[in-house]
Amino acid sequence: MGATLLCELGLFLLCTLLCTGHAQDAVLTIEPSWSSFFIGEFVTFKCDMNEGEDTDWYYEINKDSREFVPYDTDKDHKLQIISTRDSGEYQCSGSSVSSHHIKNSNTVSITVLADKPRATLTAGTTIIPVGGSVTLTCSVQSSDGWKYEWFRRTQTTSEGKIRDQQNRDIRVSQGGIYSCRGTRGNPVYYTDISDDVTIEITCEFSLVISLSLSLSLDR
């Protein structure tokens, strides 16, 4: 009985130590949590020691196992991406103010893409009848987190933004020249505007009249 109790107590203590140790591992996260970024965007590194108060630690950011941001009292660090050289493996370290004990976090990989993206606009069809509609789709390849801005103009009117539309897909029933671009992040980052897509409206009634007149003249 005594041996069994000691065994159970030992297992309990071991589990407690393991679980507690795991819960207190330092954690590095990034916001936004995208895996790839473009030059000009911003990313914030957030380092959490999961132990004591935030003010109990000095924080350091390392990149590819080298110091990137020296020890500081701020647990968050905002970085503007300025080149593809910002790609790499990032890790944060915390040094206890009182004991100088060091804790290292997980690593987070960031990839910086060199070329500014251009939105791609596609249409289900470019010719619709009066009263009909068509779905337009705006997309940005090889990345996520996008919202979209839509624009329309005609041969006689200047380009204007389509209000209240941030979706990837929109349905339109007006003819015109459409374009779009992607937006994401804070501050907002914009892709290049897509190529134009022209939507034309056909009048079936006019077509019937034209055919009737043509047949009458042939007679």
UniProtKB/TrEMBL annotation:
GO CC, one annotated term: external side of plasma membrane
GO biological process: cell surface receptor signaling pathway; immune response
Cleavable signal peptide: 1-23
Keywords recorded for this protein, A-Z: Disulfide bond, Signal
A Pfam family hit: Ig_2
Domain Ig-like, chain residue ranges per copy: 1-109, 117-194
SUPFAM superfamilies: Immunoglobulin
GO molecular function, one term: transmembrane signaling receptor activity
Protein name (record): Ig-like domain-containing protein
Organism: Oreochromis niloticus
Phylogenetic lineage: Eukaryota, Metazoa, Chordata, Craniata, Vertebrata
